[in-house]
Write a structure and sequence with these properties.
TIM Barrel; single chain; alpha/beta; five-stranded parallel beta sheet
């Protein structure tokens, strides 16, 4: 497995990561045992980057991933990324969303917290969202921040 640094100062992450959207059940029911086996097999193959989001199965993906990581005892070996949805980008909502994600994942902090989509539903200043993200980093609840599904023009 090849690895590269996350940003300029982040951890080394596998170039192949495991996205866990399917753990949420949108492609048909996936039981926990199968999800756990997928996480185990990916980790044994050298994957250390695991991506999820609160909107995947209304948090089910986060629950399955967190539980599998805990049961397999691999937390210190993996980088966990999750996302706040575009409709939760007000300051208080970003913080509330992370609280839920941490609870579902069973973690004290998330390695990478990303804005899932731009705020298309209402005019939320990027500065408000970024202030919340920066505060979460300062509070030790998030190690790194990022964006997902953003066009280059933004």
């Amino acid at each position: 497995m090849e690895f590269r640094r996350l940003g300029r100062s982040g951890p080394r992450v596998s170039e192949v990561g495991l996205g866990t959207w399917q753990f949420g059940g949108a492609w048909g029911r996936l039981d926990y045992e199968t999800a756990r086996e997928v996480v185990r097999a990916a980790h044994e193959a050298g994957v250390n980057f695991f991506d999820t989001a609160q909107v995947y199965g209304r948090g089910r993906s986060e629950e399955f991933l967190g539980r599998a990581i805990a049961e397999l005892g691999i937390r210190d070996e993996v980088v966990v990324a999750t996302k706040v949805p575009g409709e939760w980008l007000r300051y208080r909502d970003v913080k509330r969303a992370l609280e839920g994600s941490l609870r579902r994942l069973g973690l004290d902090a998330v390695d990478l917290y990303q804005v899932h989509w731009p705020a298309c539903w209402e005019n939320i200043p990027v500065s408000e969202t970024m202030r919340a993200m920066e505060d979460l980093v300062r509070e030790g609840l998030v190690r790194h921040i990022g964006l997902s599904n953003f066009p280059v023009c933004l």
